[in-house]
C-alpha cells in the first residue's frame, strides 16, 4: 500500500494530489513548445501545434507548419500554413480547430487537417488587427473573444451561430491589459480584464470596475488569471506573488496563497474535480510546477522540459516533448482504500481478497471484521468506485476482484453497478490505448457520454473500434452500429482513388439493409464531393423514393427523378418533380418529356384543369387531341365568357374540334346548344324573363308556365322533342299552375302518348282528387286498378281486379284495405281467390 501511495502528495490535511504518466510521447518535435502556438482539446482531445515563424525574425521567410496529434503523440495531420499570421489556436466542443488570424478571420479545420469553413470577426477587427484571442466554451457552444489593436473587445458566444458583440470601451485604456479572460455567468459571456491594480468586467451593456474581496494590499498589477473548467471559480496572480482564489462572480473569497515568486507564470489553471475536498490552482513557470490551495504549504514539481497545461473536468493534463501526465486530486474512494494504515471497509476487503488468493486464514478474519461492522456493502461499493478512478488495468482488476469477492457474501447486492463498471472500464482501456490516444478518466467519460465518445471515434475514423464498443454495450442499432456505418460510408465516398462502382458495391455489401441507414444521406455526401455518378448508384439502394427524388432534382437529373417518382406511386412526389421540370425546361422539351410518361401527363393535366387552363389547351393542341380540346372549349365557354357572342364563338370552336375528332354526336349537340343560346337570347328580348342558360326542357317548361304554349310547341318541333317528353313537360307545368281547365283541354286534344295514369298521379300530387277521378275512368285496363287505388276507390278497384282475375292486382287491392271500412271488400276478394283456387 505504501508503495502505491508513493506519488501521493498531501495538500493541507484533507486532500492528496497525485501525478501519473498517461503516455510516453513519441512525436518528433523539431522545435520547443515555447516556440509554437499550442492548443489541446479537453476530454483527452487532440493537440495542435503551429510552428510559429512570426515570433522569430530570422525565420520569417519559412512557411509555418500546422501539426495535429492525438493525446498520445500519434500524428493525425500536417499541413503547410498558406494563410495569414495566426494569433491564437483553440478547439471547439466538436473538436474542430479554430485558427484566429491577425486580420480577424477565423479558419476552421477538421481533426485530419481538412478545411471546413471560415468566418470573420467583423470590419473593426479587420481594420485594427488582432492583438490576442481566446477560445472558450459555453452551454451554447464554443465562443471566440478578440482583443483588437484599438484595445476593444469583440466576441461571439457561439461560432456555430455567429452573432458578434462589440463590448463596451474600458475608460482610459491606452495599452493592452496585463491579462484578461472570458467568463460565463448567468448564460451570458463576459470579459474580465486587468489594467494595473484595477479589474473591469465587460458585459453587453456596460463596463464595471470590480474588486476581489479580501485581496492582500500592495497589489499594483495582476499578471495572470484563470477560470475553472466549469466557470464557477477564478484565480488571480498578482505582482506581489499572491494567488487569490474565489468565485467567478468576485463576491466570495475562497483562499489566498503567497507563493513568494513574483515572476509572471507561463500558465495558471484550476485543478479540481466534482465534489472536491480541496480546490487547487496549478501554476507553471519554465522549470517549476506548483499546486496551491487553502493550505499553508504547496505541492511543487520540477519540470525537466518545456511543458503545457490542459485543464480538465477533474484535473490537469501536462504534456512535454517526452511525456504526457495527469495531475488530479485523489478520489475519496481511492484515498480510503489505499492510504497508509487505512481501516476503511474497502481497504479491509481488498486485503481479504489478497489473503484469500494466498489461501490464508487472514482472509476470513478481515471479512468477519467487515461483517461485524455491517459495512460489507459499503466495502464492495468503495472497491467498485475506486476501480473506476484507476488508470492501470492491473489495479482495476485487483479492485474489481475484491468487489466480486465481497459480493459473494451478500444476499441481495444489485449487480448493476459492478457490471456497468466492468463495461465502462473495458471501453476506457480501449480508447486509452496508445494507438487510439484518448486518455479519458471515468468522470470525464460519464460527463461526455458514450454517444459523444462514439462520435469522437468516428471523427478519428476508428470505425472498427466504435462498432466493437457498440456491439459490446449492446446499443440499439440506430444509435450505434447503423450510425457508425453511415459515417463510414460517408468517409468511403471521399476516397477518390477508388472507382464509383467499387465504392458503391463496397458500401452496399457492408450496409445491406441495416436499419437506420439512409443511402440518400450517403449519396448527398458523394454529390457534395463532386461524385455525381456515385451518388446515382447509391440512390439505387435507397428504398424510399421520397428520399431519392429530392437529391436527384438537386443533381439536375430531373428525368430520372420523374421516373423514380412515378415508380413510387406517390402523386405528391410526381407533382413536385413536374413543377421542378416546368421551371427547368423550356416549354417544348417539357411537353415532350410528358409525352413519354403517360402517368405524369395525366397527373399534369389534372393539375392544369384546376390551375393552368391555357397550358392544358396547349397540351391538347400539341397532342392533336381534338376530342379533349372540344371539351375544353365547351367548359371555357361557360367559365370564361359572359357575352353571348363569345360563348357561341367558343362553342363553334368546340364543334369544329369535335368534327375533327369525328365525333358527330358531340358536334351536333354543340351546334344545338348554339341554336338554343341564340333562341334564348331572342326570347329574353321579346318576352322578358330569364331564359339564358336554361336547359331545353326548362326553356319549354318556362314558356308553358308563362302561357306561351304555341311558342313551347314550336320550340319542341324545332328541337325534335319527342311527343311523350313534351306531354310530360306540359302536364307537369299545367299542374304546377293548377290550370285544370287547360289541362283537361290538353288531355282531350288527342290521344295521350303517355296514357292517362300520369294525369291521375299529377293531380293527386297536387291533392286534387276531383280532377284525378276524371282521368281515372280513361286509364287503360292494365293500369285501371292502380288509378282507382290512387283516387281512393278501393271497392271499384276490387271489382276490376276480380274481373281481371289477376293475383297481383288482388294482392295490391287487399294491401289497401283497412279493417274498419273495407272489411266487406276484403271478404269479397278472399271469396274470389277461393273460387279461383277451386277451379
TrEMBL record:
List the Pfam families hit by this protein, alphabetically. Vps16_C, Vps16_N
GO: which molecular function terms? actin binding
Signal peptide boundaries? none
Q: What is its main location?
A: membrane
Q: Which residues cross the membrane?
A: none
Q: Which Gene3D superfamilies match?
A: Vps16, C-terminal region
Q: Does the keyword Aminoacyl-tRNA synthetase apply?
A: no
Where along the sequence do coiled-coil regions lie?
349-376
Q: Where in the cell is it found?
A: Late endosome membrane; Lysosome membrane
Q: What is any one of the record's Gene Ontology cellular component terms?
A: CORVET complex
Give the matching InterPro entries.
Answer: VPS16 (IPR016534), Vps16_C (IPR006925), Vps16_C_sf (IPR038132), Vps16_N (IPR006926)
Q: Boundaries of each Vps16 N-terminal domain copy?
A: 4-420
Choose any GO biological process term that the UniProt entry carries and state it. endosomal transport
Q: Please indicate which superkingdom the organism of origin belongs to.
A: Eukaryota
Q: Which residues form the Vps16 C-terminal domain?
A: 517-835
Q: Cite the entry's keywords alphabetically.
A: Coiled coil, Endosome, Lysosome, Membrane, Protein transport, Transport
Question: Per UniProt, what is the membrane topology?
Answer: Peripheral membrane protein
Function statement: Plays a role in vesicle-mediated protein trafficking to lysosomal compartments including the endocytic membrane transport and autophagic pathways. Believed to act as a core component of the putative HOPS and CORVET endosomal tethering complexes.
Family per similarity comment: Belongs to the VPS16 family.
Q: How does the record describe its quaternary structure?
A: Core component of at least two putative endosomal tethering complexes, the homotypic fusion and vacuole protein sorting (HOPS) complex and the class C core vacuole/endosome tethering (CORVET) complex. Their common core is composed of the class C Vps proteins VPS11, VPS16, VPS18 and VPS33A, which in HOPS further associates with VPS39 and VPS41 and in CORVET with VPS8 and TGFBRAP1. Interacts with RAB5C. Interacts with STX17, MON1B. Associates with adapter protein complex 3 (AP-3) and clathrin:AP-3 complexes.
Q: What is this protein called?
A: Vacuolar protein sorting-associated protein 16 homolog
Write the gene name.
VPS16
Amino acid at each position: 500500500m505504501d508503495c502505491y501511495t508513493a506519488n501521493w502528495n498531501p495538500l493541507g490535511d484533507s486532500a492528496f494530489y497525485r501525478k501519473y504518466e498517461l503516455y510516453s510521447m513519441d512525436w518528433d518535435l523539431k522545435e520547443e513548445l515555447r516556440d509554437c502556438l499550442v492548443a489541446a482539446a479537453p476530454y483527452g482531445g487532440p493537440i495542435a501545434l503551429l510552428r510559429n515563424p512570426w515570433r522569430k525574425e530570422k525565420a520569417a521567410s519559412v512557411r509555418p507548419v500546422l501539426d495535429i496529434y492525438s493525446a498520445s503523440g500519434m500524428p493525425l495531420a500536417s499541413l503547410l500554413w498558406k494563410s495569414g499570421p495566426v494569433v491564437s489556436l483553440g478547439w471547439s466542443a466538436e473538436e474542430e480547430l479554430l485558427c484566429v488570424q491577425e486580420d480577424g478571420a477565423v479558419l476552421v479545420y477538421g481533426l485530419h487537417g481538412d478545411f471546413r469553413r471560415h468566418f470573420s470577426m467583423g470590419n473593426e477587427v479587420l481594420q485594427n488587427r488582432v492583438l490576442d484571442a481566446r477560445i472558450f466554451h459555453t452551454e451554447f457552444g464554443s465562443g471566440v473573444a478578440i482583443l483588437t489593436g484599438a484595445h476593444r473587445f469583440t466576441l461571439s458566444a457561439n461560432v456555430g451561430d455567429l452573432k458578434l458583440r462589440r463590448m463596451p470601451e474600458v475608460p482610459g485604456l491606452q495599452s493592452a491589459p496585463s491579462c484578461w479572460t472570458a467568463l460565463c455567468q448567468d448564460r451570458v459571456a463576459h470579459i474580465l480584464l486587468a489594467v494595473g491594480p484595477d479589474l473591469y468586467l465587460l458585459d453587453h451593456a456596460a463596463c464595471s470596475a470590480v474588486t476581489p474581496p479580501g485581496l492582500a494590499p500592495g497589489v499594483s498589477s495582476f499578471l495572470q488569471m484563470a477560470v475553472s473548467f466549469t466557470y464557477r471559480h477564478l484565480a488571480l496572480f498578482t505582482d506581489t506573488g499572491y494567488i487569490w482564489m474565489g468565485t467567478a462572480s468576485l463576491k466570495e473569497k475562497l483562499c489566498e496563497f503567497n507563493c513568494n515568486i513574483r515572476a509572471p507564470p507561463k500558465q495558471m489553471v484550476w485543478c479540481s474535480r466534482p465534489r472536491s475536498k480541496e480546490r487547487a490552482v496549478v501554476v507553471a513557470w519554465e522549470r517549476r510546477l506548483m499546486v496551491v490551495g487553502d493550505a499553508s504549504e504547496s505541492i511543487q514539481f520540477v519540470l525537466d522540459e518545456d511543458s503545457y497545461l490542459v485543464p480538465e473536468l477533474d484535473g490537469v493534463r501536462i504534456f512535454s516533448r517526452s511525456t504526457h501526465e495527469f495531475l488530479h486530486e485523489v478520489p475519496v474512494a481511492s484515498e480510503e482504500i489505499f492510504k497508509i494504515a487505512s481501516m476503511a471497509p474497502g481497504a479491509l476487503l481488498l486485503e481479504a481478497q489478497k489473503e484469500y488468493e494466498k489461501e490464508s486464514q487472514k482472509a476470513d478474519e478481515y471479512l468477519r471484521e467487515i461483517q461485524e461492522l455491517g459495512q460489507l456493502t459499503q466495502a464492495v461499493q468503495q472497491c467498485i468506485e475506486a476501480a473506476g478512478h484507476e488508470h492501470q488495468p492491473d489495479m482495476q482488476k485487483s479492485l474489481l476482484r475484491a468487489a466480486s469477492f465481497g459480493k459473494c457474501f451478500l444476499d441481495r447486492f444489485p449487480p448493476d453497478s459492478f457490471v456497468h463498471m466492468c463495461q465502462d472500464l473495458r471501453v476506457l482501456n480501449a480508447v486509452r490505448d496508445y494507438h487510439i490516444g484518448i486518455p479519458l478518466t471515468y468522470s470525464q467519460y460519464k460527463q461526455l457520454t458514450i454517444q459523444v465518445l462514439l462520435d469522437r471515434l468516428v471523427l478519428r475514423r476508428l470505425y472498427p473500434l466504435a462498432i466493437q464498443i457498440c456491439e459490446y454495450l449492446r446499443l440499439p442499432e440506430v444509435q450505434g452500429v447503423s450510425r457508425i456505418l453511415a459515417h463510414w460510408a460517408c468517409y468511403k465516398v471521399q476516397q477518390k482513388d477508388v472507382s464509383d462502382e467499387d465504392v458503391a458495391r463496397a458500401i452496399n455489401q457492408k450496409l445491406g439493409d441495416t436499419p437506420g441507414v439512409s443511402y440518400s444521406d450517403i449519396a448527398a455526401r458523394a454529390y457534395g464531393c463532386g461524385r455525381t455518378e456515385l451518388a446515382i448508384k447509391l440512390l439505387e439502394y435507397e428504398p424510399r423514393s421520397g428520399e431519392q427524388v429530392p437529391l436527384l432534382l438537386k443533381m439536375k437529373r430531373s428525368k430520372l427523378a420523374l421516373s423514380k417518382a412515378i415508380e413510387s406511386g406517390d402523386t405528391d412526389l410526381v407533382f413536385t418533380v413536374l413543377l421542378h421540370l416546368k421551371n427547368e425546361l423550356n416549354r417544348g422539351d417539357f411537353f415532350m418529356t410528358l409525352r413519354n410518361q403517360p402517368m405524369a401527363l395525366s397527373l399534369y393535366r389534372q393539375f392544369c384543369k384546376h390551375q393552368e387552363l391555357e397550358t392544358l389547351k396547349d397540351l391538347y393542341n400539341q397532342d392533336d387531341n381534338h376530342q379533349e380540346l372540344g371539351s375544353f372549349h365547351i367548359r371555357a365557354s361557360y367559365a370564361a365568357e359572359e357575352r353571348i357572342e363569345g360563348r357561341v364563338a367558343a362553342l363553334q370552336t368546340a364543334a369544329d374540334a369535335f368534327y375533327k375528332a369525328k365525333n358527330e354526336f358531340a358536334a351536333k349537340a354543340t351546334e344545338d346548344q348554339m341554336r338554343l343560346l341564340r333562341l334564348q337570347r331572342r326570347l329574353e328580348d321579346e318576352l322578358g324573363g330569364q331564359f339564358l342558360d336554361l336547359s331545353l326542357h326548362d326553356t319549354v317548361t318556362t314558356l308553358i308556365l308563362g302561357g306561351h304554349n304555341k311558342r313551347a310547341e314550336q320550340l319542341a318541333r324545332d328541337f325534335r322533342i319527342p311527343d311523350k317528353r313534351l306531354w310530360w313537360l306540359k302536364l307537369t307545368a299545367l299542374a304546377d299552375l293548377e290550370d285544370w281547365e287547360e289541362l283537361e283541354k290538353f288531355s282531350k286534344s288527342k290521344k295521350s302518348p303517355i296514357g292517362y295514369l300520369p294525369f291521375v298521379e299529377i293531380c293527386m300530387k297536387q291533392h286534387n282528387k276531383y280532377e284525378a277521378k276524371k282521368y281515372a275512368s280513361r286509364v287503360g285496363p292494365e293500369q285501371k286498378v292502380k288509378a282507382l287505388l290512387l283516387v281512393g276507390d278501393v271497392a271499384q278497384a276490387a271489382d276490376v281486379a276480380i274481373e281481371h282475375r289477376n293475383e297481383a292486382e288482388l294482392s295490391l287491392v287487399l294491401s289497401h284495405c283497412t279493417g274498419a271500412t273495407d272489411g266487406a271488400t276484403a271478404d269479397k276478394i278472399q271469396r274470389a281467390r277461393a273460387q279461383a283456387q277451386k277451379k
